[in-house]
Amino acid sequence: MSAVTHPRFGTQRARNARAWWAKAWQRAVEESVYHGSDLRAGRRLANAGHVGGLTVDSGSLVAAVQVGDDAWTVSVAVPVLHPESIDTLVELVAAESGRLPALMDGELPHLLVEQAEDAGVELLPYGGELGTTCTCAHWTQPCHHALAVLTQFTWLLDADPFCLLQLRGLPRQDLLAALHARTVRRDVDAAAGPALDQEVEADVDTAFDAAVRSRRILELLEKGEHADHLW
User: In 47, 62, 80, 194, which residue has its Cα 20 to 30 A from 3's Cα atom?
Assistant: First the structure.
């Protein structure tokens, strides 16, 4: 799995989560707080743009927080899903043809998360699962620097639920690969039905095509070339 570094946010007005899954993450952050003043200070740092680019990997979130000439490094650890839980989640995404397009469009279906929980897969963490460390000398964790990072991750989740999947150990490319492998297997579960499998396969093909185009466009942009001809 490869880590993904997201560009830093600029100065923001005070903002709260809009998407339901981002609100759930925000509640988990609030549960992890030792003192309300730390949370308020962390939000001020986040809104003022003092957090650098957020690097999201399987089970970890890392960012720097800089104020003037001082800088601190924050690391957040979140438990990854067990392989069996990841397999269950993949099967649940494949169970309905509209779920993958919804994820690719920046939506996390509520029913998907509910069914995952019923199957014993807790996708959204609770406060006690958010382990943080910071290079500052604050006597409790999460400190206000860590809370600034956790706050900005909430903003990322608002736009892209794949950030949560990656943090839990299932990045976008792994999900797409697992779904693709599932659709081409010969021993498809008879209960799924051929029509449903065809719909899911079409969704996966579309997602793969979009992912390939996006990667190619990024490569061209990095080289300073125009990418209009790819569309």
Answer: 47
